């Protein structure tokens, strides 16, 4: 099946063309609408994509859509009703869903005969049971304002958990895997038999693990205090917690390579930041071991998870009593399995591939 996967942002379109699992072409149209940018608007960007790649015989377009609310638990063929629903969900993802809607509108206009499918970051987490997705606040508020844990990075967690089961020869229907997606954004997920049962991001991608510029879990009182006592406007607090927090806030650097370099030189701020970053991962691993009743595997993925032996070793240090051990030589060379042979819990490194997962989900939906 020939499938074009589109990831449309507010000022960029990332694309990849697949023939089944083989990549035929990929590229990025950037700085849309900016002076000197690649394209004047999203329609011009899409036209550029269509000029750059051979779309003859295209079977489908797959669109990455960040927020599907509780309405979408799987990839879904796009029609007017879906578009209206995604529009209704804009308040839950004000930066991301409008861009996806633009990408969908332009692709439907320019490729009217080609089926289009939406693949949602949130969909995989719709299997989290209510006690894992509900916040313990007044239900009158949560019901009226759609407040709950949605979770994100779903295509990555789904892909990586499935690949881990394949790698270890575990039955997909029963494998218990803790996936740790550690990139610029970061989240943990507990996957039981291919279904998400817990994840660290919540109503937004701000909660859970420490990230490049996002704070992860904090007491909500921090926000009241910054507003009432420090006098910061709410928009400034939001900007600080999403753009100037995490590794950026702790060290002034958001790139883990730089922070690790400073840590190796004995820099105090970098040492605290890495300790905090890794301890938060360890806390989530402990929580998810409990939620799952033990795990077959813990898998690291995304930029930091795939490439930082230090973060992996530091995050899982001291867990031998729980059957979790890392083999240093395997870890240092970024092997696929970095635990010793025969370990009770396998520790793995599996590169994520969200576009490939999107293409696979599109093919599954259309072959039904
Ligand atoms: P992603 O969002 O998956 O592209 O991941 C981006 C993050 O991966 C950034 O924080 C990078 O600093 C980090 N990263 C990339 N390569 C390495 C590396 N070799 N060691 C540590 N972190 C890395």
TrEMBL record:
Cofactor binding, note field: Mg(2+). Can also accept Mn(2+).
Site (Transition state stabilizer): 153, 214
Catalytic activity from the UniProt record: acetate + ATP = acetyl phosphate + ADP
Keyword Nucleotide-binding part of the UniProt annotation: yes
Gene Ontology process terms (BP): acetate metabolic process; acetyl-CoA biosynthetic process
Summary of subunit composition and partner proteins: Homodimer.
Protein name (Swiss-Prot/TrEMBL): Acetate kinase
Gene name as annotated: ackA
């Amino acid at each position: 099946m020939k499938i074009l996967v589109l990831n449309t942002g507010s000022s960029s379109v990332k694309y990849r063309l697949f023939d089944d699992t083989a990549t035929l072409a990929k590229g990025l149209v950037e700085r849309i609408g900016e002076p000197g940018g690649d394209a004047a608007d999203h329609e011009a960007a899409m036209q550029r994509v269509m000029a750059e790649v051979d779309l003859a015989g295209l079977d489908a377009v797959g669109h990455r859509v960040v927020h599907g609310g509780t309405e979408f638990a799987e990839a879904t063929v796009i029609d007017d009703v879906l578009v209206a629903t995604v529009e209704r969900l804009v308040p839950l993802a004000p930066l991301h869903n409008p861009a996806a809607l633009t990408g969908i509108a332009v692709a439907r206009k320019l490729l009217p005969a080609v089926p289009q499918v939406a693949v949602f970051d949130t969909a995989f987490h719709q299997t989290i049971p209510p006690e894992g997705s509900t916040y313990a606040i007044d239900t009158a508020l949560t019901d009226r304002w759609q407040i709950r844990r949605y979770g994100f990075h779903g295509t990555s967690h789904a892909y990586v958990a499935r690949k881990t089961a394949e790698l270890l020869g575990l039955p997909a229907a029963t494998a218990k895997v803790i996936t740790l997606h550690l990139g610029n954004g970061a989240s943990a997920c507990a996957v039981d038999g291919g279904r998400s049962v817990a994840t660290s991001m919540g109503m937004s991608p701000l909660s859970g693990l420490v990230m490049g510029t996002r704070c992860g879990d904090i007491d909500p009182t921090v926000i009241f205090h910054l507003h009432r006592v420090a006098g910061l406007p709410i928009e400034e607090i939001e900007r600080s917690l999403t753009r100037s927090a995490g590794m950026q806030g702790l060290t002034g650097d958001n790139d883990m390579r730089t922070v690790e370099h400073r840590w190796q030189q004995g820099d105090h701020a970098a040492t605290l930041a890495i300790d905090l970053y890794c301890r938060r991962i360890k806390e989530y691993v402990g929580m998810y071991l409990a939620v799952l009743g033990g795990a077959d595997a813990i898998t690291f993925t995304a930029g930091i998870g795939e490439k930082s032996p230090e973060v992996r070793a530091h995050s899982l240090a001291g867990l031998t009593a729980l059957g979790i051990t890392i083999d240093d030589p395997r870890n240092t060379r970024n092997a696929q399995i970095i635990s010793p042979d025969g370990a009770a819990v396998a520790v793995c490194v599996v590169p994520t591939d969200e576009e490939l997962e999107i293409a696979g989900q599109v093919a599954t939906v259309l072959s039904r």
